[in-house]
Amino acid sequence: MTALLFIVILVGLVVIHEFGHFIVAKASGVKVEEFSVGFGPRLFGFEAGGTLYAFRLFLLGGYVRLYGMEPDQPETSESFNQRPMWARVLTIAAGPIMNIVLAAALFWVLFSGVGITQIVPGPPRIAQLEAGMPAQKAGLRPGDRLLAANGKPLASWNALLTAVSDSHGKPIRFLVQEGQARRTVTLTPEPDKTAQGQLHIGVLAATQVVHEPLLTGLGMGISQAISACVLLVTAVFGPLLHGRTPPGISGVVGIYGYVQQAEAQGIASVLQLAALLSANLAVINLVPFPPLDGEKLLLLFIEWVRRGRRLDPGREAIVNTIGFALLLVLAVVLAYHDVVHMHGTL
């Protein structure tokens, strides 16, 4: 199931990306020679409207082939390079744009459809107790609400965390509500063995699933998609500009691991991961490195500055080939790093 989910997410993100190129190219009069799902030998396909729609053996993405983007093709009225500048820019940019739209849609489904698990608001309510911890020893029970700590009201779960942290290991007197009755319980926080330097009392918060109204969820989805793109730019490209290695870069193997973790946590985690990956794909494709979309947009900008004079198509093809080879090498290096890291030898 994890492998199937991984393929569905990976192929889905790339197909949506390529569909952006496809639909704008068709609308602007560019001949789309092929829309392929997967790479390698063709399994089956059909032709319609002058376009070959193919399914290929290796389901690791897909691609769209536009007429006129290869240097040896004769120019016709349906060539990519014969379209107005705005149409070509929009055709190239449509791929990343579709990934951002998809990210917003997935976040929308998450917020308004599946719902987000949140801690129950108000004074902290206990859902579970950890065996042998101070809260259980002191007689607290699931369902109890902690109203105050040492006489200070507790308005939220964060207030409880602050009270425990500020206790410095000294006893805390809690005002507890159980149903309609109230009682006082005194307990002493203990160091958390899994989080060095932190104190805890052994209680888990009660949670609830919140579904946002459709319009509110849509706005939150758009905002979250944009935030994800900004976060990627600052987290990855910020360190690169300062000569440092960005943290948390993963290849295909690492992404598979993330899918496995998300699957174990449920549909909400799967949707969130897919949305983040879609936003990441949009940003990465805008990097001006051959043969990514960012490089094509940069070449169009140079052509515009040169008043319509293109760079040599033959040299452009050579640069794209070299760039593609370097991306393959990077993919192999990241995959090796992921495998080594998963086995705990880094």
Structure description:
It is a single chain. This protein is α+β, with helices and mostly antiparallel strands and 346 residues long. It has two domains: 2-115 and 212-342, no CATH class; 119-210, PDZ domain (Pdz3 Domain), CATH 2.30.42.10. It contains nine helices and twelve strands. It has a four-stranded antiparallel β-sheet with strand order 6-5-7-8. Strand 7 (172-178) and strand 8 (181-187) form a beta hairpin. Helix 1 (2-27) runs antiparallel to helix 2, helix 2 (85-114) runs antiparallel to helix 7 and helix 6 packs antiparallel against helix 7. The longest helix has 30 residues, at 85-114. The model has no long low-confidence stretch (mean pLDDT 89).
Specify the oligomeric state.
Answer: single chain
How many domain regions? 2
**Sheet of most strands:** 4 strands, antiparallel
Radius of gyration: 27 Å
Mean pLDDT: 89
Order of helices and strands: HEEHEEHEEHEEEEEEHHHHH
- How many distinct beta strands? 12
Count of individual helical segments: 9
Regions with little confidence, pLDDT below 50 for 5+ residues:
none
Question: How do the strands of the widest beta sheet line up side by side?
Answer: 6-5-7-8
Helical content band: 40-55%
Terminus-to-terminus distance: 29 Å
The proportion of strand residues reads 15-25%
Envelope shape? elongated
Structural class from helices and strands? alpha+beta
